[in-house]
Amino acid sequence: MKPMKLIHKTLFASAALLAFAACKEENPGVILTKPAVQFYDTTYIAAAAETPQSKNSLVEDLTGARCSNCPKGHRAIEEMQLRNPNRIVALSIHGRDFPQFTTPLDSTKDVDMRTNYDLLIYNIVGRPGGLPFGTIDRVHKSPTAGTWEGYAVSRMAVPTPVNLYIEKSYDPATRELNVKLKAVFTTDTLTMRPFFSAGICESGIITPQKDEDLASDPVKKGIELNYVHNHVLRTMAAFKDPLLPASVSGMPEKNRVVEKSFSIKLKNEWNADKCSIVFYVHRDADVLHVVEAKVK
Fold first, then answer.
1. Is the dihedral of CA 48, 49, 54, 59 positive or negative?
2. Is the model's pLDDT at 4 over the cut of 60?
3. Domain that holds residue 203
4. Strands, DSSP E only, in 64-161?
5. Which of 54, 213, 256, 277 would be 252's cystine partner, CB 3.0–4.6 Å?
6. Residue 114 DSSP class
7. Number of structural domains in the chain
8. Angle between helices 70-83 and 148-156 (to 10 degrees)
9. pLDDT, tens digit, for every residue of 87-142?
């Protein structure tokens, strides 16, 4: 007997007005518009159970080009990934809050890596006192990059109730990226309906960065002009969207499969060779699992 599939479309396009007050200055707020992405949902019960995957950990690094302490977070992530290969997924988020840290050093020629997703993340985990600021699965949060790996390792030891997969195809002529996200529940222990998020990040972006470690350098004077930025969040196709289609009532049962397909066109200034898709399933402030796949 073939598994029954239930398919429906959801049009994802929303805007939210968010305002935050910075210390001794007012932020008038930012209009946040997510890209219009049409998702196609498929769900069914798999005939055979899957072996649970090992849980990966999501590190969200809130950072900025004018933040001289932020390279400590960048370097900590690189070291974490070297010591824990394929288990740490990082997103380097250059936001618009804390403009004294996030504004490009030269707005006329530097790469502007800013998005508004820092505001949505702060709405979940709380607004920090400054940058850098790291969240580990949105369970642990700390401005001290040296603590991130310990938190990440502890989170990787937590069993995940869901296996995640990314299938994709990319057309360089049109720059269209087609993606299928797949979630397979390996237990029936969840007590709330989960969310999912999916983003595009880019590595290898070369643009200036303040760096405290270069403050005494008589030539660089605290600024690395050819700094290489990695894991930079470019956009989110979905942010805290319901994973389960409306056709599924209650909690996800064991062997429940959910597939979500979408297409998105990469901007011309993004290097597709250096871009990745990040897919994670989560409660609100608890990432259950995360995976990453290169666009090419």
1. positive
2. no
3. 38-294
4. 88-94, 133-136, 140-142
5. 256
6. B
7. 1
8. 40
9. 999 999 999 999 999 999 999 999 999 999 999 999 999 999 999 999 999 999 99
